[in-house]
Design a protein that fits this description.
It is built from seven helices and no strands. Among the domains are: 60 residues, no CATH class; 62 residues. The protein is flat and about 115 Å long. It has 213 residues and is mainly alpha-helical.
């Protein structure tokens, strides 16, 4: 009995599907796509004996677990990544110390600091996963010092007073027309006011006989 090739992927298909249709559906399956990428880059970790079907099953199990709300697998993955990035940082920082040339020192130290920054970002991702940030809604209060004008399609302030005066005047004029057929001036007659007595016009006897030149 020949041994199954571990890199041959089994494709499930229904009775109504052709093999080409089943292969097309499998080509866009998230678990299968991820398994192909993982298998490509893991050969220097676990070797060439990793079975592709088993890798797909493991990824599907992880995805199903996350779909139910259990994110413990993702949390463990992030913690592992943060630890691995910290190890890379220490290794590169140590190697930079033994460099004799400035450009080599800057290259190793720069890569070390990038690994450190990625480790810190991964730790922050773990914190956000375990303790999600709650949205805070703050009620806004509009406080203005002095007069405030709100334009909402209605007259405000002095405009209201002027509109009311104009409306009252129009009603009084209409009432006058209805009563006597003439417009009625409802405004009070203003009495002639005397000016300053000290500035009254001079009488003829007080005027000079000749105008000065």
């Amino acid at each position: 009995m020949s041994k199954k090739n571990p890199k041959v992927l089994s494709v499930d298909r229904t009775a109504n599907q052709t093999m080409e249709q089943a292969s097309a559906i499998a080509s866009v399956n998230p678990a299968i796509n991820a398994a192909v990428v993982v298998d490509t880059y893991q050969t220097n970790i676990m070797g060439d004996d990793v079975e592709l079907d088993s890798l797909v099953d493991a990824l599907r199990a992880s995805m199903d677990k996350s779909a139910t709300g259990d994110l413990s697998g993702l949390e463990a993955m992030l913690i592992g990544q943060a630890t691995a990035l910290q190890t890379i940082f220490v290794s590169l920082a140590k190697r930079s110390h033994h460099q004799q040339y400035q450009r080599h020192l800057e290259a190793y130290l720069g890569l070390a600091l990038k690994a450190q920054a990625q480790s810190r970002a991964t730790i922050q991702a773990v914190i956000d996963l375990k303790f999600p940030r709650q949205a805070t809604f703050v009620k806004q209060a509009n406080i203005a010092h002095g007069p405030q004008q709100v334009n909402n399609g209605q007259a405000t302030g002095g405009d209201n007073v002027r509109a009311l005066d104009n409306q009252t005047g129009q009603i009084e004029v209409l009432e006058g027309l209805a009563n006597g057929g003439k417009e009625v001036d409802t405004r009070a007659k203003a009495e002639a006011a005397r000016g300053d007595p000290a500035v009254e016009a001079l009488a003829a006897s007080h005027r000079p006989k000749k105008r000065g030149r």
